[in-house]
């Protein structure tokens, strides 16, 4: 499972987040800082755990502070927060969770009781369920004219992500509540992408990419919900390895890569 998870994380670092930062329209210095840390962070994934891997992971963790600091500055300029702005701020902040987790995972030490194998999955999770999901919810919210359903999605995705994170510490039932909120938000994102955004796309390739991104969410989030339900109740559910190979890979390739490629082709004004 380790090479597969590493590839998913590396794609998040080097492709998904840089593409998303461009769509948000962060300053060039923030994008440069990200890449300066993402490259050594990606290299650290393939090295044996130890001081060298940790040093490279620290550079990545420092780079994740750049979008988080930009989020703080952006928040300070806002008198009120629209739902899509909540989603954008969430996207900017969540990579910092991945950065912190990577440092401890590369050191081979538990963090707050979580073993390195779980920390590696946390790194992947906060590139996709954190950054890519929240960003997409914000993009869809604006593209659909801030409809009630899109506002609900733009709040449910960040709220669900926060609850899932809290569930790591509170317990499986909080994580299940987060999975329910996140799944509901992502299904709304997928539905609005399919019924609204896709239909207004100017060419077949962009429509196809949006269709794949929306359709993948229907299956991958059902898997996430079944896993969280099983963890909370003891009912049969997919293993971590199965989730990484299905939910993780499909979200990375189908939802995030196809979706962000489509949004780049749509050339929306920066969020």
From TrEMBL:
Coiled coil: none annotated. Keywords: Membrane, Transmembrane, Transmembrane helix. It comes from the Bacteria. The chain crosses the membrane at residues 6-24, 53-73, 85-104, 116-140, 152-170, 176-197, 209-230, 242-263. This is YndJ family transporter. It comes from Sphaerisporangium album.
């Amino acid at each position: 499972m380790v090479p597969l998870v590493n590839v998913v994380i590396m794609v998040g670092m080097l492709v998904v987040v840089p593409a998303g930062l461009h769509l948000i329209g962060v300053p060039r210095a923030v994008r440069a800082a990200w890449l300066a840390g993402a490259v050594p962070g990606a290299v650290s994934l393939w090295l044996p755990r130890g001081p060298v891997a940790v040093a490279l992971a620290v550079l990545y963790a420092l780079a994740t502070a750049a979008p988080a600091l930009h989020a703080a500055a952006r928040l300070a300029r806002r008198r009120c927060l629209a739902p899509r702005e909540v989603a954008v701020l969430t996207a900017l902040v969540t990579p910092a969770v991945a950065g912190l987790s990577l440092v401890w995972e590369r050191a081979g030490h538990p963090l707050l009781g979580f073993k390195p194998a779980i920390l590696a999955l946390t790194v992947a999770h906060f590139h996709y369920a954190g950054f890519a999901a929240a960003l997409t919810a914000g993009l869809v919210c604006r593209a659909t004219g801030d409809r009630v359903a899109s506002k609900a999605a733009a709040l449910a995705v960040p709220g669900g992500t926060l609850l899932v994170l809290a569930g790591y510490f509170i317990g499986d039932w909080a994580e299940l509540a987060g999975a329910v909120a996140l799944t509901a938000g992502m299904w709304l994102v997928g539905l609005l992408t399919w019924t609204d955004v896709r239909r207004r796309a100017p060419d077949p390739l962009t429509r196809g990419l949006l269709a794949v991104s929306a359709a993948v969410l229907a299956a991958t989030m059902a898997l996430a919900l079944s896993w969280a339900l099983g963890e909370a109740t003891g009912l049969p559910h997919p293993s971590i390895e199965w989730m990484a190979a299905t939910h993780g890979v499909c979200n990375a390739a189908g939802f995030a890569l196809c979706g962000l490629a489509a949004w780049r082709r749509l050339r929306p004004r920066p969020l």
